[in-house]
Design brief:
two-stranded antiparallel ribbon; three-stranded parallel sheet; globular; alpha/beta; 19% strand
Amino acid sequence: GRTTEINFFGVNESLKLVDLPGYGFAKSSYHKRKDWAPLLEEYFAKRESLKAVVIFMDIRHPLKDSDRDMIGLCNSSDVPFIPVLTKGDKLSNNQKFKAVAEVNKKMKGCEAIIVSSKDLKGFDRLSKSILEFC
């Protein structure tokens, strides 16, 4: 939630997760965001080992400008992405269905995954999706 630097996490010998600046960072100063944009663009363009990006969005407020910016960066860099809707426990099943349908419609080809850290739902599916890129 408050990442302001790039952090690397080794999952196993062939898989590393990289945590990039996100929503907390988006609320930081304009100058910090301006400095990061070219670094992220270069990272996406030149990092040959980058297989996919997981984009986390609050299911109650998906596809904010920062989400669209990240999706645009992925698309312009030809990097596949996995849209993940967090806080799945906060909505009814009907509301979740509508949110996923809206996101999927705008993603054209990507299928959003709903997760909830409260009830631990969706993480098996997310893990499987990530491992498909390894």
